[in-house]
């Protein structure tokens, strides 16, 4: 079925049955704004397209997009902290992959904050939760007791996001 063939009720129902197709339909409606080929306005078509736009769900999805950026920052921060803990507390068992992951998480967080500067304060706000998750994961992954790792995050946010910061002994001992 073509996107153009969808009726207003089908477009709304589409949100419940095929989210991807709904997003494509809504994007097409927003892009065309009721314009016909050749750029001429078609009053009836434009009014019909505006009626077909699923404003309620569209607003929900836009809000959700912002929420997903916040979640991604928190999750990447937790992974970064997990590897910093392992790096510091297991210096004789360091893996090159831990360092590569730390570099990647820092770059990805920086990229997310570059495209959404209004979220610059978000990492500080979720640091305690991200650290708690990192501590649990590090203990589980290493077999060390959770109490091995500090109860509260031992690093400042500036250190965590600093490309040159690696906790623990300086000499690299990779396995």
Q: How would you portray this structure in words?
A:
With 175 residues, the chain is mostly helical. It is built from seven helices and no strands. The chain has helices spanning 8-17, 19-32, 43-52, 55-89, 96-115, 122-142, 157-161. It is elongated and about 65 Å long. The model is unreliable at 1-9 and 34-40 (pLDDT under 50).
Short key terms for the protein model shown above:
single chain, 175 residues, mainly alpha, disordered N terminus
Low-confidence stretches: 1-9, 34-40
Give the helix/strand class.
mainly alpha
Number of strands: 0
Helical amount: 55-70%
How does the overall form come out from the CA principal axes?
Answer: elongated
User: What is the average per-residue confidence, as pLDDT, rounded to a whole number?
Assistant: 83
Order of helices and strands: HHHHHHH
Q: Gyration radius, to the nearest Å?
A: 24 Å
Q: Give a quick account of the main beta sheet: strands, pairing sense, barrel closure.
A: none
For the record, give the distance between the C-alpha atoms at the N and C termini, rounded to a whole number. 55 Å
Kindly estimate the percentage of residues that lie in beta strands according to DSSP: under 5%
Question: Assembly state here?
Answer: single chain
Number of helices: 7
